[in-house]
Amino acid sequence: MKNSMNMNLNISLKDWVKSGAPFIWLNAGAVAISIIMVLGLMGFIASKGLVHFWPAAIVQAQYTLPGNEAVNIVGQITDSEMVSAEQLLAIGLKTPNGAIEAKRLLLKVGNRDVYGGDFRWVLEHHLTQQTLPQKAMAIERREWGNFYGFLGEVFEGTNKVADTKEDDVKAWQVFQSKIERALTIHDDIMDIQKGQIGSINYKIERLRLEERGLELDEQLTPKEVARLQSERDALNAQYAVHQITLSHLYEELERDHFTATEMTGQTVEIKMSEVVRAFRPNAMTAGEKISHYFSKLGEFLGSDPREANTEGGVFPAIFGTVLMVILMAIMVTPLGVVAAVYLREYAKQGFTTRVIRIAVNNLAGVPSIVYGVFGLGFFVYFLGGTIDELFFPESLPSPTFGTSGLLWASITLALLTLPVVIVATEEGLARIPRMIREGSLALGATKWETLTRVILPMASPAMMTGVILAVARAAGEVAPLMLVGVVKLAPTLPLNGNYPFLHLDQKFMHLGFHIYDVGFQSPNVEAARPLVYATALLLVIVIALLNLSAIYIRNHLREKYKSLEI
What we know:
CATH class of the largest domain: Mainly Alpha
Number of domains: 3
Strand content: 5-15%
CATH architecture of the largest domain: Orthogonal Bundle
Helix content: 55-70%
Mean pLDDT: 87
Number of strands: 13
CATH superfamily of the largest domain: MetI-like
Largest sheet: 6 strands, antiparallel
Shape: flat
Radius of gyration: 32 Å
Low-confidence stretches: none
Order of helices and strands: HHEEHEHEEEEEHHEEEHEEHHHHHHHHH
CATH topology of the largest domain: MetI-like fold
């Protein structure tokens, strides 16, 4: 009886294995684990990066080390870790109550211009009299990082207009109004410098190049000289007007200042022009903290970086990444489709086409840095240098296209992702039944009409799949871009209001390189770490949005041409 039951069980188990059910569960488990890992990674990055924008409480405490007198310390707790008793013993310290480990805190004390550093590690059990003072403030500055301390007096010019000792509420309100005034003036200055004056400088440079070109062509007549000088004088007159306006604005910007007391009791004088934002996190309500959080997040997404890219925003990097990917997709799609159509529809299938397909597949595995070296040598130095000699001799010896820029970066990445588009498109063409081609030809359509009106529309979802894969790879590449166009900081965007509007010769910023620069080249590693996580999360989101856009187009094309499928 027992043997019979075991035999039935073995038979049932064999039938269950033959049915394929274990493999279904195995695949489902693998997918579930992959999703959990991806979500876990995204959650880890988000938790490390997004918390940077939240207004953390400012702690004030007495910090005492054995044999030293207590010192006052003020700052925000940004990180913590456990250290062993052996590590502390090596530097002459002990754990509390003979414990095997102790907790130490990373405190952001700011005031780099006063202390020489922004961060300080402290042992938690050496902190006493910890408080959260309501009047403790954090000031984000354009230089020297954050300032932590207590507001003193507010001055308008040389006149004191508010004092926290007399009326703290009024002093804080006046302080905030002066900051808003300084920010408005600063924005006006930036608009004039980057907008009007930037446009005038660009036009003056164009006139210089035009004059040099006429001189090289021996067409620089006195009439042309007079015309160019007249235009230059008009631009210089506009420039002088803007300079006068800027001079007045700078005087207004430098008018106000205030005093603040830092943690050692020293009083520091700070100009309003240096302040980006000031707040008292310990006195903020939940609504004010949420408003502050989204204000900081908006600044991160929509403003330029500052403080060696460790503060401010990443908008130029977002713009450069998206623009480069769009240009790359515009270049690689027609090239990849044409190559795939030739290999599948026109080329004679044989040894040569097999060798070409093997070469294309092998190109997909070439390290990206190799493409960068090729792009630098062929596109930048050879092709760009030739273009400069033929079309931009007036700019020489300063290169126009003979240096790294947006165009060469886009072409290099197009070459990098070309095999992906070719393979995906060719597979899509191969899946189209032969009878559809024959039916179209039998109805009187030419081969070209069959290709453009039947075959390519049906293969368009496969083409979009190739573009999706190309975008996913190109958007995250950094190594080749370091050679052919990306820079740490680009003063102007490659797309602006100056003719010809899209400046393909201009260098640009990229999110991937920004992560590398902030994470590994920053002079202030601790301050940069949260921005590394935040920028990495943003890069993933940008790639996902680009891919989702391509997926939407692919699904739309699939539904549109579904009637052609059999």
